[in-house]
Amino acid sequence: MRIDLLAAAEVAPGEMKMAWVNGTEPVLVVNVGGDYRAFQGICSHEYFELDRGFLTGGSLTCALHLSRFDLDSGEALDPPADQPIARYVVVVEDGRVQLEADGPLEVNE
Ligand code: FES
After folding, report:
1. Residue 45 maps to a domain
2. Which terminus of the chain has fewer CB atoms gathered within 10 Å of its CB, N or C?
């Protein structure tokens, strides 16, 4: 199943934006040098929206307690987070960033 997230043009390289699937499930879209990636939108440590954090060379920092997450694997690189953030499969088609999902979105917490 494909889930439409947002227009590719809405997220410039080096930026990120939250998409709300069904209006309730936050999915973070990150543009890493033209490569679109999607992750769970909420930190794996506590309930905090990751689009309020910041991107630095290959990682995403949660603004609440400053854990960093790897933008390839989703792994937590520093405490206090010890769970990875889930990464989803993304397809860009007709200028839209879309998520490929077989069922409910995995979310680590
Ligand atoms: S809520 Fe993200 S590191 Fe604590």
Report:
1. yes
2. N
